Amino acid sequence: MSTKPLRVLALICSTRPGALGPVMGRCLIDAVTPRAAELGVELVPVALGDLNLPFLDEEEHPSSGVYRHEHTRRWSVIADAADGFIAVTPEYNYGMPATLKNALDYLNGEWAWKPIGFVSYGNTSAGTRSVQHAKQVVTTLRMVPLGATVAIRIGDSVAEEGRLRPDAARDAAGVAMLDELVRLAHALRPMRERARAGTVSAGTVSGLLPGAYARRLTPDDAAEVTVLQRCCWVEEAVANDTMAIPALHESLEEVGEWLGSWHTTGIWLDGRLLGMVRTHRIDTDWHLGRLAVVPDLRGRGLGRWLLRTAEAAAGPECRRILLCTGAKSLRNIDLYQKEGYRPTSPAGVDGTICLAKDLAGRQR
């Protein structure tokens, strides 16, 4: 299971003046917020009316990801950052409101492999026909609708002053729906991660490890990077008899900060970060660091692939590649020397040794 917290959007779908949607949404959020806190879930209410989405006005098909309008780009960012959704929806004439259908139609990849639950409300059917209509649409978008739902019959639940009457069973159903959504969101996370693949030489990586692929890491990956660093640099600490290794002590915030400034490539399989390397240029030097592969998959060529991929990214202005490792990290030093690196100086007072690879005569 990923270390990332889940973000769940509660979509308030009705935009009709005086609609019950905000009341229903508030009721849901109040009922499930304590459980969301226990599960580490960020529950974010989003009123579709606040998005100011006109009827779909994008020229390109949503699957292209080419959005010309600011309202579409804004909606894309909001939806893409979510791990799951709860739609609080009325029933209009045996179906879902046009606002929900329109909001769904605007996007495509942002919905894929995310669970969606429904809180419906209405009169005769308590809004359940709206849910059945919506399920046909969301499954086409590769969303996964929950079996658990909350259906509210307006006549039985709404007091004259427009408030919802207390209902322990309804609240319990909301919590059960959140529990199911969280389980599904975690289970589907590898699918969502794989769908992000703007991959780097994915075929080559998959040849080393079937199903694996590479992509650039971002500050959103800080939790996975932190876990990888902890498991990989313990051995370095033991070999070099020191705990003064930044990778063992960096906070999530510190990791996120350097992920924003270094170009970092990560190898993934089934939602798990298996290895990484980071690079950036300073003058004519190409600095390479944090090369790591999970201990259980070493010896498969992943570290060498990461090293060579990082080297290949050096621009023509770079004259050499620099990297550092522990002076007693003999396995690392052996790999680097086989790949053409040579020590630039004796080990420093911090117990590290720097190595360089000359790029001056390379073919471009």
Describe the structure.
It is built from twelve helices and twelve strands. By secondary structure, the protein is an alpha/beta fold. The chain has two domains: 190 residues, Rossmann fold (3-Layer(aba) Sandwich), CATH 3.40.50.360; 157 residues, Aminopeptidase (3-Layer(aba) Sandwich). A seven-stranded mixed β-sheet has the order 6-7-8-9-10-12-11, sandwiched between helices. Strands 2-1-3-4-5 form a five-stranded parallel β-sheet, with helices on both faces. β9, α11 and β10 form a beta-alpha-beta unit. α1 crosses α6 and α8 crosses α10. It starts with 5 loop residues before the first strand and ends in a 6-residue tail after the last strand.
Strand arrangement across the biggest beta sheet: 6-7-8-9-10-12-11
Percent range for helical residues? 25-40%
Q: What letter string, H or E per element, gives the SSE order? A: EHEHEHEHEHHHEHHHEEEHEHEE
CATH architecture of the largest domain, please?
3-Layer(aba) Sandwich
Instruction: Report the average pLDDT across residues.
Output: 91
> Radius of gyration in whole Å, from Cα?
26 Å
Number of helices: 12
Quick synopsis:
The protein is of the alpha/beta class. Helices cover 39% and strands 24% of the residues. The chain contains 12 helices and 12 strands.
Primary descriptors:
7-stranded mixed sheet, Rossmann fold, 39% helix, 2 domains, alpha/beta, Aminopeptidase, elongated, 364 residues, 5-stranded parallel sheet, 12 helices, single chain
